[in-house]
Amino acid sequence: MFNLGSLVLWLVVILSCLSFCTGNSVTYDSNAIIINGKRRIIFSGSIHYPRSTDAMWPDLIKKAKDGGLDAIETYIFWDRHEPQRQKYDFSGNLDFIKFFQLIHDAGLYVLMRIGPYVCAEWNYGGFPVWLHNMPGIEFRTDNKVYKNEMQTFTTKIVNMCKQANLFATQGGPIIIAQIENEYGNVMTPYGDAGKTYINWCAQMAESLNIGVPWIMCQQSDAPQPMINTCNGFYCDNFTPNNPKSPKMFTENWVGWFKKWGEKDPHRTAEDVAFSVAKFFQFGGVLNNYYMYHGGTNFGRTSGGPFITTSYDYDAPLDEYGNLNQPKWGHLRQLHASIKLGEKILTSSTRSDRNISSSVTLTTFSNPTTGGRFCFLSNTDASNDATIDLEADGTYFVPAWSVTILDGCNKEVYNTAKVNTQTSVFVKEQNEKENAQLSWTWAREHMRDTLLGTGTFKANQLLEQKGFTVDVSDYLWYMTNVDIDQTSSPRDVTLQVNTKGHVLHAFVNRRHIGSEWANNGQSFVLEKPISLKSGTNTITLLSATVGLKNYDAFYDMVPTGIDGGPVYLIGSGNVTTNLSSNSWSYKVGLNGEMKQFYNPTFSSKVKWRPFEHKSIRRRMAWFKTNFKIPSGVDPVVLDLQGMGKGHAWVNGQSIGRFWPSFIAGNDNCSETCDYRGAYESNKCVGNCGNPSQRWYHIPRSFLSGDTNTLILFEEIGGNPKQISVQTITIQTICGHANEGSTLELSCQGGRIISEIQFASYGNPEGKCGSFKHGLWNVVNTLLLVEKACIGKENCSIDVTGESFEISDATSSLASLAVQALCSKK
Ligand code: GAL
């Protein structure tokens, strides 16, 4: 019979089921991450939500999913979420809850690395700078003030996720969370307090009851049940400190980051695939690409010193979200190939047989099902190998590669045999008016600071970030020097010892020099000056360029003139120490305070017509309007010709620029050998060019027909050279071996308009310089044209049959194609 009592009982059952029955349990053992009882290996990729815009997220997530990922990893960026103590911001591209929901909607998991110390080439490693000024605080150690703040923030993030039902146990996407970041790498100098701290981190994290496993990366003594994980270029040799923990590669560095003045990093698709395949060969369970999409350091978020605005990282998705081919596609095929063995890999015993000193056959076999899955690796950096596995076949394993054998007898993938297309992007100028921008300019008003007037005084040279709390890159240091009225002008040398990162010096309102160290560290500015009789004003403008983000006690590394000393050195080396003079201070630029960069306020600014002499003007603001480029291709600002400064589009910061900082001329070469261990200096490019010339303007920053671009230029440049361009796919190439399929695809709605080269036979060379080899099927071009012209994508089976030959030579054949993508 129906009664109220049974109704209540049912309601209780239904309500508890809502949180329990829809949830997924996440456990693990040494062979698998076990999600709802299903034994999984996981491919994941890092996409940091504030390094793109929320408008870009759905496309990035889709491309990650299409690339064969199961999960997306991100840090949580404390400084952005809590810019002032207990004043939080989760709006726009800081809405990580929305980001996680989108990932969930796409059917992917989330790895949430809270940190809240993140490193990440992010300003101050993700710590808000106000934290530095809290009385009694010491970062990342057993310190009450610090631990309290860390716990408050971590708890807040966890609670937000719980409220939005984002943990897997609640039916959400988060399957793993991380506390701290690579503390093990820097722990020793913190002594016993470091050990106490890491134990506290573990307990604090555990007490938050998130229902999914916690990890600590690079923490070989991780307190249980924290799982320690590995970061690096290769992690196949890593073993977790608990034999029951799964072996996880939390950061497989797919390339590297860039600093101002450095070259473009490049890690080949072959080598990344080699690292991943070897990791799974030797028992890996989870691989996360750091980064899958690197993106952009908008605003003043880049770490440092001297991390560039671009955080492209040579990731599978480039800075703008385009497929970085062949990397994206080669890894996609790798994921699919390893997934063929998922059941066996996660439930079998492994045996390794060394066939030679560099060739190893690893067999996973499941005694119950009899299933087998093999990896055959050749770690020799120069010698290829041909391996006879008797009944299981004979395999050609190029140097520095891993072959994946489904059923241990069928090659489904080799890390060095790249069948994916290469895509070449170009910068295009589609709107004529965006090439010839018309400029106005305004002065940065410096009368106050050049006359020595600040807002604060001290008889010492202060540390910069502590004083500015990093609300601006800029801090003015000003002092007066009195010279006896009766004496004649005195020629002396001004010597400023600064901790960095950039210094501009003025004496009696005149600029006398600017300087920085190549690595963004301490340097000495030394300039001859002439002091007049009476009062002389020395004005020093110190600028930071991204606060340090890594190392033991990195948070204490000083910035700015901090203690100097500042000397005047006269004839006969007579030295006057000005360090404890009365110094006036002022934080930031007047233009920053008045928001010159914001179109709403900039209408009040006196913008002057641009004349030839506006070129190379330092400490100046420049303004122009431009048209939104047609189409959907990503938009970039070409800042070639400019010095150093900051750029805003419609009031939104697109980051710092410094195109006058030229990358060194050494160590670039046309060829890049994927073989041999990668390190960040290997295969670099862009020698002798601006280390960053193009700056991403996300399309969502643009509106209507007229967009306002405002620049602050610190050291002088030529705005006349600036143009707005799009990043457009132009040439695509593929080179696939007999038995595989060559797939070609244009992006952005473009179609294949021309086949520039096609050869089935034994073609040689690479994209841009293919040539016919000793033999070639004459009508290859016609056949490829038939299959591809006018299409966005096409695919061709690379078999003798497709090319109408039955010759036995075809087993050594390959097909190379170079095509052009154009607008429909
Ligand atoms: C790791 C760190 C990451 C990132 C990476 C280099 O040490 O955990 O956050 O900084 O290095 O890109």
Automatic annotation (TrEMBL):
Signal peptide interval: 1-23
Q: Name one GO cellular component term.
A: apoplast
Q: What is its main location?
A: secreted
The protein's location, in the record's own words, is: Secreted, Extracellular space, Apoplast
Keyword Hydrolase listed? The answer is yes
GO terms for MF: beta-galactosidase activity; carbohydrate binding
* Substrates-to-products reaction catalysed: Hydrolysis of terminal non-reducing beta-D-galactose residues in beta-D-galactosides
| Protein name per Swiss-Prot or TrEMBL | Beta-galactosidase
List the gene name: LOC111461523
